[in-house]
Sequence to fold (208 residues):
Amino acid sequence: MLRVYEIFASIEGEGVDIGMPSVFVRLSGCNLRCRWCDTPEALDLYSGSEMSIDNVLEEVKKYGIRRVVVTGGEPLMQNDALELVKKLLSEGFFVSVETNGTYDISALTEFNNVRISIDIKTPSSGMEGRTLWENLSLLRPHDQVKFVLEGTEDYNYALSVIRRFEPKCNVVLMPVGGINAKWIAERVLKDKLSCRVLVQLHKIICIK
Fold:
């Protein structure tokens, strides 16, 4: 059984799949309390409804979209999250799992058609340093790490992480609030980083 806060269809607003129609399965509960969390109502593990994996799959199928994003909260808090991923894969869905990187991701790396997306918390979130750094060495070329940046301190933190761990995956830098990315682009060009500078598309077009 899973605690599910909501299931809905939207476009992917962040990362390498930006703009792709997707079904979002938002699981309840998070072990972090980021200052700029955009879904604080899902932080409580007992928010939302209890659903079986088959019930979740039934709801997902109603949208007729083949991409599914398992998100939260922090989905890996729930023991049955991995079973949900396995079930979705068995039904032919492409699955992305959005995690804050504080839980071991090794079980997810067994599946080639899962994109692991780690949101590394920066100082402005108030939760920096919580990442399980061993996870970064497990990421594959089609996976991604994301940094949400409020200002120079956040950028410098992201830069130090990138240079220290040299992740072998997609690296995405985005501004808090989703729109003002010019200053990030200027710093990336100056520092000659191999990463993507993106906005948060869902915030620009005002869609969930």
Remarks:
- Residues 152-165 form the longest helix (14 residues).
- Strands lie at 2-11, 21-27, 49-51, 67-71, 94-99, 114-120, 144-149, 170-175, 196-197.
- The longest strand covers residues 2-11.
